[in-house]
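In the laboratory, one determines a bound structure by crystallizing the protein with its ligand and collecting diffraction data. In a computational setting the workflow is compressed into a single prediction: the sequence and the ligand go in, and a structural description comes out. We illustrate the idea with fe (ii) ion.
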Amino acid sequence: MSPEQARYAVGPIDDATQPVRVVPGYRQTALRTPAQPLQQRPLTLSELTGPTEQAKRLALTGGDIAGRGANRAIGQLIQVRLRIVDEDGTPVAGTMLEMWQANAAGRYLHPNDDDHAPVDPHFCGAARVLTDDTGAIEIRTVKPGAYPVPDNGRWWRPPHIHFSVWGKLWLSRLVTQMFFPGEPLNNQDRILQAVPNAEAREGLIARAVPMTEGPEDALAFEHRIVVRGGRATPAV
Ligand SMILES: [Fe+2]
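The predicted complex, in structure-token form:
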């Protein structure tokens, strides 16, 4: 193994820190899970390189998706302070983060969401932003609502925000979700509870910023995403 390969080598994933592959009662998880055991392949250039100049290829939206004035989305205004780090705590600077979420009524602006909850004409629920030099991003949005899962057995997703992060390497891409602290539905969520390790589950729940330290008009939450390694944020 070359020094570069050794540097980027990823140890076996600790299954306890990642969700079970197929979540009972959530049929999409079966559809997106490999049916065959994974094969370890030697790392080559296509694994040891990553996306470059992402902002030239995909349009950025900026981190403010709550709107203002007459165009302000309905719902509780929140500020999400994200920090993207590598497994050793190094900030992942200048990388692209994509987020998507339901509106305050629990409705996605997506053709697959035919839920009865209303669409908010002032809220698209998605953003594409780059981290700054410290790996940080701030997003101004509204708190997503809970929504029922159209699957067998009646259950609801707690409020959550989806994130996709492109790390320094193609292998570092992480798709995950952030949950809110103190939500009663967290303990019943089949996705969050599919992560066996309690500490790893905790890592998916944002921290409430003290009200005196947040903006005047929004509740603020802090959240850290670790893109790879043994302490990687669970990919849910
Ligand atoms: Fe969702």
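The first strand starts at residue 77 and ends at 85. Keep in mind that any predicted model is a hypothesis to be tested, not a measurement.
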